[in-house]
C-alpha cells in the first residue's frame, strides 16, 4: 500500500521535531484537519516493525504513524510496548521539544528487541515516540486531556547498525 500516492512526484516528508509535535500531533489530538494526510493511523502493537515499512513507502528511509497508547493493565498507567515477536525498550533520556522557547512536547527513543524481556536480542529498528507537553514538569493541557494522553506520533528508522531508539 503506497500512502503517498496522493502527493506530487518528488515529494519528501522531512518534518522537524517541532513541526511533528506543534502541528501534526497537536492537530490530531484536537481532531482538526491536517492539510496533507501523510501520517497514517496504525495499531502499533499489533504490527511488527518490519511490517510497518510496507505501510509506508520505499522512497522514504523513515516512516511516520499515529497510534494510541496501549496499557499493560486495564487500570494501570504502565505502557505495553510488546508485539508478538518482541518488545520496544526505551533508551536514554526524553528530549524536550521547544517552540519559541516554550515546551510543547517530548521525544522518547526506543529500540526493538526480538524475543521476551529480559533475554531479548537487540535489533536495528529504532522508534521515536512524541507526546504533547505544556510545561517543564510535564503537565498535559487541561483541554482534551482524555484524548491527549492516548494519542502519540511515532517515527521509525532502520539502520545497518544498532543505534539508540527514542520513545515517549
From TrEMBL:
Residues 7-158 form the NAC domain. Coiled coil: none annotated. The keyword Transcription applies. Gene3D superfamilies: NAC domain. It holds the Pfam family NAM. The keyword Transcription regulation applies. One of its GO terms (biological process) is regulation of DNA-templated transcription. PROSITE patterns: NAC. Keywords: DNA-binding, Nucleus, Transcription, Transcription regulation. GO terms for molecular function: DNA binding. PANTHER family: NAC DOMAIN-CONTAINING PROTEIN, PROTEIN CUP-SHAPED COTYLEDON 2-RELATED. This is NAC domain-containing protein. It comes from Vigna mungo (Black gram).
Amino acid at each position: 500500500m503506497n500512502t503517498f500516492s496522493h502527493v506530487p512526484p518528488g515529494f519528501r516528508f522531512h518534518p522537524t521535531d517541532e513541526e511533528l509535535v506543534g502541528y501534526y500531533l497537536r492537530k490530531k489530538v484536537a481532531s482538526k484537519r491536517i492539510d496533507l494526510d501523510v501520517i497514517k493511523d496504525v495499531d502499533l502493537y499489533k504490527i511488527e516493525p518490519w511490517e510497518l515499512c510496507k505501510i509506508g513507502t520505499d522512497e522514504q528511509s523513515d516512516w511516520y504513524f499515529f497510534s494510541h497508547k496501549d496499557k499493560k493493565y486495564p487500570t494501570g498507567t504502565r505502557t505495553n510496548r510488546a508485539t508478538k515477536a518482541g518488545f520496544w525498550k526505551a533508551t536514554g533520556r526524553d528530549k524536550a521539544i521547544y517552540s519559541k522557547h516554550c515546551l510543547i512536547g517530548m521525544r522518547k527513543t526506543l529500540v526493538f528487541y526480538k524475543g521476551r524481556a529480559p533475554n531479548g536480542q537487540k535489533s536495528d529498528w529504532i522508534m521515536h515516540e512524541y507526546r504533547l507537553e505544556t510545561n517543564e514538569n510535564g503537565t498535559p493541557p487541561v483541554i482534551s486531556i482524555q484524548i491527549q494522553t492516548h494519542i502519540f506520533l511515532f517515527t521509525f528508522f532502520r539502520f545497518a547498525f544498532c543505534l539508540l531508539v527514542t520513545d515517549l
